[in-house]
Request: fold
Amino acid sequence: MAVRDEENDMTTAETVIADADLVGAKVRSKAGSRPLDNDFKTIGEVRVNDPRMSCTDVNVFYGDKHAIKHVDLDIAQNQVIAMIGPSGCGKSTFLRCLNRMNDTIDICNVTGEIRLDEVDIYDRKLDVVPLRAQVGMVFQKPNPFPKSIYENIAYGPRIHGLAASRAELDEVVERSLAKAGLWEEVKDRLDQPGTGLSGGQQQRLCIARTIAVDPEVILMDEPCSALDPIATAKVEELIDELRENYTIAIVTHSMQQAARVSQRTAYFHLGHLVEVGDTTQIFTNPRHKLTEDYITGRFG
Amino acid sequence: MSEPDKSTARTIDIVEASLKRRYARERRFKLMGLGAVLLGLLFVTLLFFDIVSKGYTAFVQTHIALEVYFDPAVIDPDGKRDMAEIARADFRKIAREPLAKLFPEVTSRGDKRALYSMLSSGAPYQLSKMVMKEPGLIGTRQVVDLVADDDVDMVVKGNIDRNAPAADRRVNDQMIGWISKLEADGVVKKKFNTRFFTNGDSREPELAGIGGAAAGSFYTLLVTLLLSFPIGVAAAVYLEEFAPKNRWTDLIEVNINNLAAVPSIVFGLLGLAMFINLFGLPRSAPLVGGLVLTLMTLPTIIIAARASLKSVPPSIREAALGVGASKMQTVFHHVLPLAMPGMLTGTIIGMAQALGETAPLLMIGMVAFIVDIPGGPLDPSTVLPVQVYLWADSPERAFVERTSAAILVLLAFLIAMNTFAVIMRRRFERRW
Reply:
């Protein structure tokens, strides 16, 4: 309650930051919890010339909680867009809207419009199965199926009927693993369980599994948060290579990672999309105070 | 400088003082746990010791080896070898004759009747069966191990004390004298009691077996398993994976949990009213027993299956959905196989419960005295625990050991089932 009272005293973010030098850490956290006005307008260019996915006025509610507030955002073809922001800002929630993974949560309610190649993915008549084949997802924790490495990759193509024969399936498996940079490491033990690989290998296996169904967009929800720096470097390298063929949206807690792998960056704050722009611009010349505070490590 | 030093020293002292208390508490807790385990073991040991010590003698049966003359004049006076005629022959006479020869001094009618009662009423039938199988025996002399009466059996096994005062025992001095003579002649034999496993129930303890009850239990459990496993798993999968979470599904969940606690006899009454009176299914049939036990086991299976479905990490569901699997594919390709070991365990526990269930089966007439071994789920039959109940109710001394022996067989089945469950679990877990 005390925090709430003090918040009311602060009128702008600037006031908080001005005091920051005097009070230090205590105030820094306050800037992160200060909500923006409901009619806040995103700073920066949310639209692009050739969008793969286009979101307009997206709102997400978890029961009564308004988790995503009026977000407009385009995701450009063959580009990596990074979504950053403090914990609980809604970036993962937003990402999960893009292939309707939020449908699995009963109390979750999404409004607004998200288009994939001019098709409204929240259309009542739309089938989520082909949508998820088009918009694949890699999760925070590596989650290979408790089956063999081969089966992990072959599962998607098999249920979608993408491979006509066993030979074709073999080829898909090899190609996917090769694209994920895992083929050389596992080609001799495809029949061994995917869960027996190291964390980094498991995550690349999950990426390979996503690639195997040949999606157009790949969503990655903090794909490196459970990995060590070496494995992280490999996955980042992989993301950079995948950009040639896929459109990628990545949620990350690591600003360095966002700077390294993305071309565009979107900064989320308590459900608002605060600022969008080229990654270099966001990291060198942020226009909103909150973005600046976050990337300079004043809170978050 | 000295002040913080003092305070740290004090902290350590406090910690060390409390440490002793904490360890003491831990030790006490461990000892209590160990005590509980030992108490449990003690009771299990007592139970087993009691049952085994009472029951093991039932696995052997006293026989009297007598030289039987298959007298053609009695068995087949016409010499036609007509099987129907032979079956009607007076084998009682044939069985009694060698005994009368052994004890020529017994002449009075009453004494003779007492003498002949040393043989089981199944002994003539035993001879008849031999002849039916091998008609060539007619006219020959054979030494045959004839089944002894249960009283003789009890005396030979020492379950009836020969030295007790005559008024306190069932068997009189005269018969004990005969038994001693037979024993001295070396014709009293204890043989493995195959009848106990193959025969149906009987009024005569020496002829009574668990064959009928075991077959009844088998058919009953088969019906139960075939119905409750698919229905239970389907219900659990629907409730856990597909049903919307609303007031109705909450209500269903509460009801399922309540059903698990309903006294089993209530299910018996329900089965009587529904399956027998309304649907007209046969009384005493394993089919009805299986239906009733299905009702009783379903909550157990549903609850266990739901728990094991819940324990499958959501990340697996997300992974499957993420590559575009439909909900059905996600459940059947990934969730169900991972939940299967838990479901099987729940099912086996439910089955074991059903195997040991007595009360609801009394309500649907499976408590009748049935001699024939059922040939299918529609034949009248009883089940193992009801057989135990029936024998425990019988006054004959020889039924005491048979009761314990039947319990032993029941326990053996339970152990076998649980072992099977463990093996199944292992196999499934290795595959995934």
